[in-house]
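In this section we walk through a basic example: taking a raw amino acid sequence and producing a predicted 3D structure, encoded as discrete structure tokens. The instruction is simple. Fold the sequence below.
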Amino acid sequence: MIRRRVFVTGGTGYLGQPLIRELLARGHGVRALVRPGCAAKLPEGAEAVSGDALGDFAATVPPSDTLVHLVGTSHPGPHKAREFREVDLVSIKASIAAGKRAAIRHLVYVSVAHPAPAMHAYIAVRKEGEALIAASGLPATVLRPWYVLGPGRRWPGVLVPVYRLMEIIPWTRESALRLGFVRLSQMTAALVFAVENPVAGVRFAGVPEIRDATGVVMSDLYEFSAKTLGGGAKGLGAYRGKVVLVVNTASECGFTPQYEGLEAVSRKYREKGLEVLGFPCNQFGAQEPGDAAEIGAFCQKNYGVSFQMFDKIEVNGSGAHPLYKWLTGSAPGILGIEAIKWNFTKFLVGRDGKVFKRYAPQTKPEAISGDIEQLLAA
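The resulting token sequence is shown next.
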């Protein structure tokens, strides 16, 4: 993978923050244009550049080779037609001008799915932005999501079952796919893919392509590593070809007795190819307060745990371990909500390194035996 030097406008926003974190985690250099006084909102590791995304900021772009344009009206609605022209349209014009003067090699632009039965003013402005990009001669990737589900933007998730039904019916399938929902993790992955895979002309990616990007950018379990309770780093590539059960654990939770079931399942299927991985987490009711030594002693004394335990991590939020960002993005919960709800949420991963299924905290390990046996037999 070639290390990119990425310049981001709108880096403190809903899409910008997770994108910058992921780009930095993958080794890319990131500079972000921010308003004065807003640099603290950027993820740690990004270089803040003060400027106006609606004005001339071309001098601040070099030495970046990629420009990601994320500026736009927040929470767009039919009543914001004037803002679309004053913010969305003006800002993409500014980004195109800056990109041409700075001789960037690739522009990434978030547009919107169209045609659509609503948001006509918004779509018109975004289509105008697409036309300006095409006329500029800049190599570009244009992403066309409809609605990005994520923190603070989950209410449309109640319509997910309706969309799934419409995707099955032949005469509604095309519209349902074009105007379907994408998750924030999918959108982030699609932006990362665009950055890492520039094109010579102009490439368009709709909802189906955005959804598929997660499997390309963050493809399997084996890409990750984690610190064990003993303090050493362990690459999860060591589990290649195994069936893996990943669990976020806690020592003072009502579900803590599930350690017994996890150990039983581990012993029963280990020789057949199952590995159980435990990740202590203190994010739910502060029910894992101990350090690595205390957690290890508790697990051994009370449950005789012999499966691999890792050091304490976060599984939700900006500090979530990359493994859990991938797990939750690959297998969201009810209504498409990715966040882990509580201790002892479980993910079963097949021999191909892909997530097979997610299980709620109350699902006991022994209840997963059927699925484990199915994957072991595959």
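Looking at the output, two observations stand out. The radius of gyration is 23 Å. Residues 81-101 form the longest helix (21 residues). In the next section we compare this with other chains.
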